[in-house]
Amino acid sequence: MAASIGDDDLAEPIVVSSLPLETRFLPLQLRQHGGFWFPETILPGIAAVRARFAPRPSDVFLASFPKSGTTWLKALAFATAHRADHPPRAPDHPLRLRNPHDCVEFLEVPYALDPTADAFAALPSPRVIATHMPYPLLPERVTAEGAGCKVVYVCRDPKDAFVSMWLFAKKTAAAAAAEAANDDEPRPVPTPFSMEEAFELFCDGRCPAGPQWPHVSSYWEGSQRRPEKVLFLRYEEMLRDPVGNVRKLAEFMGCAFSEEEEAAGVARDIVELCSIDALKNMEVNQSGAQEYVKNEAFFRKGVAGDWSNHMTPAMAARLDGIVEDALQGSGFAFAAAEST
């Protein structure tokens, strides 16, 4: 891959092929840039976003480390922001007909497909856009003190994030293998990697958007500096009080629920529409697909503490120790998740 990356804060472009390479996270090839690992194909999109994307003051960015509540946050934010046009009980609500990832697109993905185009220009304001980019790599036009747009971040216990990522990676590898088997010309088939192999990579930060802990802490620090522009949510707290967190989300986005909406239970309706069980059972999420995986792959358990059903106590203690050491002195700590 010979493409170059142009950074808005670097004098020299970066050649993707010159970046450190990780080939063990199948079916992806990862490259390290700015201290984080990314799928090789996404890096030109990140560069194009930094160089060309023009944010609007009313934009709301939904940020997350992969497999940390991304799909749920997309659904909740979309339903909240667009409830005037699409009441949550409406039988033709977009979330009943489309996957949340089709309703809220990732910022860097269309730019990776065509770095010169702006796939978001035609969207009416306020735009709700997602990203897995860490806070330091967001365009300065988004993070600067005078920027008007807002960022909502959801974080998750590293152990649960790891387990969810490993299980999702197995599904994407299986999908890639099936696609390769159907090709007219034979090509290498990704071999699923073991949990132990995935764990070593995760502990070393070698996973999409990894390492996870600086990804999370970068947004936490942003929320401490600019609380009016960066909302930091914890997945575990959202599970405990989904309605309260939807209210918080609506207020932050500038569309707080009115007294009439509160009386009518609109926030509760949004939570019910976007629940893991409701989304999982919708036809589009049972039979539809993204380019790289079936929609059903995005809906598993949606709980906190499921790591205890997959990881040994020794693995959990090791990862906890790595994270604690890395975050020492930062002022941030992950909330302890309850075991299932």
UniProtKB/TrEMBL annotation:
Residues 57-331 form the Sulfotransferase domain. Keywords: Transferase. It comes from the Eukaryota. Gene3D superfamilies: P-loop containing nucleotide triphosphate hydrolases. GO terms for molecular function: sulfotransferase activity. InterPro entries: P-loop_NTPase (IPR027417), Sulfotransferase_dom (IPR000863). The keyword Transferase applies. It holds the Pfam family Sulfotransfer_1. The keyword Transferase applies. SUPFAM superfamilies: P-loop containing nucleoside triphosphate hydrolases. Its EC number is 2.8.2.-. Belongs to the sulfotransferase 1 family. This is Sulfotransferase. It comes from Triticum urartu (Red wild einkorn). The lineage of its organism: Eukaryota, Viridiplantae, Streptophyta, Embryophyta, Tracheophyta.
